[in-house]
Amino acid sequence: MNPSVDRQWPAAVRALQFANFRLYFAGQAVSILGSWIQQVALSWLIYRLTGSVALLGVTTFAALLPQLIVGPLAGAWTDRHDKRRLLIIVQGLLALQALALAALTALEWIGPALIVAMSLLLGVLNAFDTPLRQSLIGSFVGHRDDLPNALALNAMLFNSGRFIGPPLAGLLLALTSEALCFALNGLSFLALLIGLLLIRIEAPQRAKGSTGTVFREGLAYVWGNQPIRLLILTLAMVNLTASSYAVLLPVFARDIFGGDAQTLGWLWGAAGCGAFLSTLYLATRQALPGLVGIVLVGAVLGAAALLAFAASTTVALALVAMAVLGFAISVGNVGVNMLLQSLAPEQLRGRVVSFFTSTRFGFDAIGGLLAGLLAARIGAPLTLALEGGVLLLFCVWLLTRRRVLREQVRDDLQEQAGR
User: Fold this and answer.
1) What does the record list as coiled-coil region(s) (predicted)?
2) Which distant-in-sequence residues (6+ apart) come within 8 Å of 214 by Cβ?
3) Contact in structure between 87 and 146 (CB atoms under 8 Å)
4) Is residue 33 part of a domain?
């Protein structure tokens, strides 16, 4: 037996039997916690300095837009190179970005223009980082059957960081400053860098041809495959509407509920708790065609939770709505990712992942920008209620396609298994 594999791991965490994935998992756990601390601290810094809801939307837009524009091309470009080496470089640059943000904040040189510029830089780096990490996970586990579980565990890390990081950020902000939060995030990247340096894998096969040719090949596959096209459309709608709540949380925390940074942290944490529970559930799923129904139910739950949160007048009710919303968004995002990576041929996985990440974060960016601008005119509660209604209408249409989509996914998965 391969010494890097331990077959005694329970089924729900079976991907951890691989030593390479354990190294990645440990490093990523620390890195994600730091990233969530920075995200909450930056959101609070913007609202503390400017009180501008629109700037919250613009900053989120700047941080996520590169995923939509650069992401697909980044996926094609990285498919032509050594992905592990590229990921090490990108992680180092992300650490430098966080430390630079910490220094600018500590020296009180930070302002709206610099915040947007630093967010844009972060977005460009993440446009390379996210598809690199996602597409390498298959190399860390070694067996295609264990890939869905590895993706669910990776999402569990993200959501546990989302659960722990925001309340911790709220505590740190109450005791120290935004600059310290940014500095801690910069240091947290060292954990994943060390893990990546220790990992030993064979370099995945590189795509041949120019970046343009490789990109067009991936686009043709995604557009020509009906199940993948419909899954990506669902992903776009969920993130355009439901995920936009994040931009408006500081408004609800301070203006609607009369709270402070700790209130913001608890709201973030409630969403993270729901998202974490969703990944615990998804980690136990082995029948992939059944994920189609789960993704659709998640979209319906997301619409209902948006409407409930928009109508909340107490923190207690808002926390419950946030937990349901976090569960719903995560089920949709992670479920779609599990399906896409399982459906995609090995040689196209990097490009399919890049389309997933560009849709996931790009439409999150557009939704955040629209939510911020709309809330400045009609208020945050009415904005979220409107978006919840739009998502609900989409769900009604999507449910009419459920049976056809499930059958197509089952047939495609059987075809992949037979290759």
Assistant:
1) none
2) 76, 77, 79, 80, 207, 208, 351
3) no
4) yes
**Structural domains counted in the chain:** 1
Provide the residue type at 139 as one letter: S
C-alpha angle with apex 7: 6 to 13, nearest 5 degrees? 90
Residue 10, SS3? coil
Contact predicate 274/326, CB 8 Å: yes
Domain assignment present for residue 219? The answer is yes
Alpha carbon 89 to chain centroid, angstroms: 21
Q: Can you give the pLDDT at residue 167?
A: 82
DSSP calls for 267-307: HHHHHHHHHHHHHHHHHT---GGGHHHHHHHHHHHHHHHHH
| Residue 2, in any domain of the structure | no
Main-chain dihedrals φ then ψ at residue 177, nearest 5 degrees: -160, 165
Instruction: Tell me the per-residue pLDDT of 79-107, one tens digit each, with 9 for 90 and over.
Output: 777 888 999 999 999 999 999 999 999 99
What is the CATH classification number for the domain harbouring 230? 1.20.1250.20
Q: 312 lies in which domain range? A: 11-200+207-417
CA pair distance 247, 224, nearest whole angstrom: 34
Q: Which residue type, as a one-letter code, is found at position 65? A: L
Residue 36 covered by a domain: yes
Q: Is 115 exposed, middle or buried (0-12, 13-18, 19+ CB in 10 A)?
A: buried
Which residues lie across from 419 on neighbouring strands? none
Is 50 exceeded by the pLDDT of residue 3? no
348 has pLDDT over 80: no
Report the pLDDT averaged over residues 2-19: 72
Residue 373 CB coordination number (10 Å): 16
Structure token digits, residue 263: 């209130």
DSSP 176: S
> Which tops the pLDDT comparison, 13 or 303?
303
Task: Render pLDDT for 280-334 as a digit per residue (tens, 0 to 9).
Answer: 888 877 666 678 888 999 999 999 999 999 998 888 999 999 999 999 999 999 9
Tell me the percentage of the chain whose pLDDT exceeds 70: 95
> What confidence score (pLDDT) does residue 418 get?
57
Q: What is the pTM assigned to this prediction?
A: 0.76
One-character DSSP codes across 185-236: HHHHHHHHHHHHHH---PPPPPP-S-HHHHHHHHHHHHHH-HHHHHHHHHHH
